[in-house]
Amino acid sequence: MSEVLYRAAAEEDVEEILQVVRVGWPTGGPKAMEQRHGIIGGKPWLDQQVAAVESSVRGNLDTTLVAEVEGRVAGWAVYTTNEDTLVGAVAYNAVHPDFRGRGIGTEIVRRALDKLREAGMRIAIAGTGMGDEHAPARAVYEKVGFLPLRESVSYSMDL
Question: Which pTM value belongs to this model?
Fold first, then answer.
């Protein structure tokens, strides 16, 4: 098994991070909305998700970590801090399907939590969907010590 290098993200990593989203993002609210209501805003759900992740990563490049294997971005995580509340978040994160099952997701979330502790955060939050496709994310969060806070239901309707 190849060695994994964990490091701060750089501008040149952004396109590979977005590629991980394109090939490995399970689903989410935007996909569910599209399935129920059709394409919204003129762009397929995945294009919207890629744009949201790109905005988050570019806006938080200094708080984005990557896991690199043989020169490829195998996984990544964005973490954010709130100096007013001292609540940090493990925000967007994913592991490329080619590299799943190697503990990369768990380790990169652990490292993001370390960064939140170093920044003086007192609480960490993370969120994911409740569907089966999100089970690996939930397993990672629980493995590193997160406890479920609440379940959520989203509603929509045509007007």
Answer: 0.91
pLDDT, one tens digit for every residue, the chain (159 residues): 689 999 999 999 999 999 999 998 867 777 888 889 999 889 998 998 999 999 999 999 999 999 999 999 999 999 999 999 999 999 999 999 999 999 999 999 999 999 999 999 999 999 988 888 888 899 999 999 999 998 888 888 889
Is 3 in a helix, a strand, or coil?
Answer: coil
What the chain holds in terms of domains, given with CATH numbers, is: 4-143 (3.40.630.30)
Nearest to 92 by CA among 117, 133, 67, 60: 60
29/130 Cα distance (integer angstroms): 11
CA atoms within 13 A on the CB side of 13: 26
The Cα–Cα gap between 84 and 91 comes to 18
Query: How many other C-beta atoms can be found within 10 angstroms of the C-beta atom of residue 137?
Result: 19
